[in-house]
Specification:
A 5-stranded mixed beta sheet has the order 2-1-3-5-4. Strand 4 (about 155) and strand 5 (about 160-165) form a beta hairpin. The two termini are about 30 Å apart. It has one domain (about 1-200): Uracil-DNA Glycosylase, subunit E, CATH 3.40.470. Helices cover about 45% and strands about 10% of the residues. It is α/β, with parallel strands linked by helices. Keywords: 4Fe-4S, DNA damage, DNA repair, Hydrolase, Iron, Iron-sulfur, Metal-binding.
Amino acid sequence: MKNRKLEYSNHLNHLLSCRKCPKMEGNPVHGCVPSARIISLGQAPGVHEERFGKPFAYTAGKTLFGWFKKIGIEEETFRNKVNMSAVCRCFPGKAKAGDRKPDAEEVANCSEFLEFEVRFHKPELFIPIGKLAIDQLIEIKKYKLEDVIGQKFSRDFHGVKLDWIPLPHPSGLNVWNHTEIGKKLIEKALSTIKKHPVIREEFSL
């Protein structure tokens, strides 16, 4: 147990001290917990997340946790029980519309943190949120959100066999969420998440 605590502490120190990517802004943000059976994966923190020091801390977070509340999961409980990872852990800066999408080098630089968390926690369920996060799990190159949202998949990821259930990004800029098919498939995805055994056990649903 002591070795595990030390391993987790060393991981956090390594993550928070990382400055590999010159285009990234501010400090790394994490939503790590010392023990988790579930991992969620976002794209990257926004400017407000960097300020608050936790993922999904602003408007997209309100939407995300609004979704989870519909299936009986409160934000505080989610944050305590789920290791909230991200493809990149620093704010990428602004683009013309919304935040800049991390480039391939930045994704590669940050991949060691996700790999550690998967191997460390050995999660039973993985919830990628948004296309960049889904891209890390999916084993085909071209797909549409309607092909994957609402589905449950299984695969070996970093040596760990897990289920994964994707969600679209909850950003207000994501117009897909407001389409009829989008709304229908988000509801289906949330229902699929709620029915997963580890969700039922961890959140007493």
